[in-house]
Specification:
By secondary structure, this protein is α+β, with helices and mostly antiparallel strands. The protein has one domain. Helices cover 22% and strands 49% of the residues. The strands form three sheets. The protein has a three-stranded antiparallel β-sheet, covered by helices on one side. A two-stranded antiparallel ribbon has the order 2-3. Strands 6-7 form a two-stranded antiparallel ribbon. Strand 6 and strand 7 form a beta hairpin.
């Protein structure tokens, strides 16, 4: 799964309130829960999966992600 870990926070800059949003995504193996954190976009996480041997698998209509270690065990 690719989990959206984005967060919003407020900050004062030169006496003015500023609203910031930090985008981040974490890739998580749905079988062993191995995490690859801190992608700045969803597509960056998808590209990492493709380049590093992860597989997406449709299980009962829901997409799951499997890391290379779990693929070898299957």
């Amino acid at each position: 799964m690719i989990q959206n870990c984005s967060r919003r926070y407020g900050k004062f800059v030169n006496g003015n309130a500023m609203d910031y949003q930090e985008e981040s995504y974490t890739l998580i193996c749905d079988y062993c829960e191995k995490e690859i954190p801190r992608f700045s976009s969803f597509m960056e996480a998808v590209n990492y999966k493709k380049e590093n041997g992860w597989k997406s698998k449709n299980v009962l209509g829901e997409w799951t992600d499997m890391c290379p270690n779990c693929i070898d065990k299957e």
